[in-house]
Specification:
single chain, alpha/beta, Rossmann fold, 2 domains, 33% helix, Gfo/Idh/MocA-like_OxRdtase_N, Gfo/Idh/MocA_Oxidoreductase, NAD(P)-bd_dom_sf
Length: 397
Amino acid sequence: MNARNVKIGLVGIGGIGQHHVNYLSDMDNVELVGVCDTDREKADRTAKERGTTAYYDAVDLLERSGLDLIIIAVPHYDHPAIAMEAFKRGVHVLCEKPIAVHVNAANAMIRAYEEAKETHPGLQFAIMFQERTLPFYAKLKELLADGTLGKLTRATWIHTKWFRSQAYYDSGGWRATWAGEGGGILTNQCPHTLDMYQWLFGLPEAITGHAHIGKYHDIEVEDEVTAYFEHANGMIGHLVVTTAELPGTNRLEIVGDLGKLLLENGKLLHYRYPQSMLAFSRETDQRFAEWTIEPEEVAVDENAPNGHRVVTRRLVDRLLGKDVELIAEGPEGLGSLTLANGIMLSAFRKRTEPVPIDGDAFQAELEERIRTSSFVKKAARAQDAAEDMSTSFGKTN
């Protein structure tokens, strides 16, 4: 693309959509050519404030605004349909998480992208996994890529800094319902955590999940989950998440043959083993042993640019012809969704599920819950358009 500005259209002006509007307003080399929402008043108001055009239908936005790139920030079920409409028109896509509600829809979306690239070879598809830019997570990725810990044996992640009140769940008629959102904490809050897990460790070969439905909130989806992952290389993983704890915990412990990393409370600690843990176990004559290791605090540049703006900036730069890597290519969204669907399918069936998961089985379970739902959603409370969404974003401290 040789144009000086990338013309961007935004569909969905809820809380996260407003966040996109805010940072786009002062980003170089972009022009917001349209905002779209089924709430006409919201679309009109935002368009007037930002000096752009209001649309009420995503196809109209795609057809009439002259956009180069569409940012999709609508409820989850609509992600694939809007993205596929964009792909067939040669419009670049930046999709909010999750890529879709179930892996079948995600795979259809990815196939549509690959097919569209045959006609539009330069077509770009990115997904908003901004937590990959957070300094502590970026440092973990670097250390693991360097083989610092040797053979990984265990990763345990307690991530309960996702507190959501009943007022939050009541703020939208689609929230926390099978038909409107397709799930709870795994679908809404944890796609970032799940993406980070598979980004750091890869996908497991088997998933065992335990999900509690509406345990702490008046909702029909999961608000507390514990999962166990088994990897082909022998590593095991644990995940504990909930939207009920206050204050919450974010503690990630990664154990390897040669050391351990501990991330908690804004500190990354490295425990360097004096020798291979596994070799010591095989070779020592001691029946019992204990290593006293003083951890080193790993230096992390906490001021490094991060967040949604960085993800969008990287995509805009690529569209302007710069040779840059995207923070997350769109098809990578399938990884976190595989974990989310796999955990829930395991919980539904009360058994361990292999990976790749049975997408048809999960979709059937989901559709049955939608069909038989008797849940009555409370009247949605109006959401303050000026609410600071940054308090909802995942943090490492």
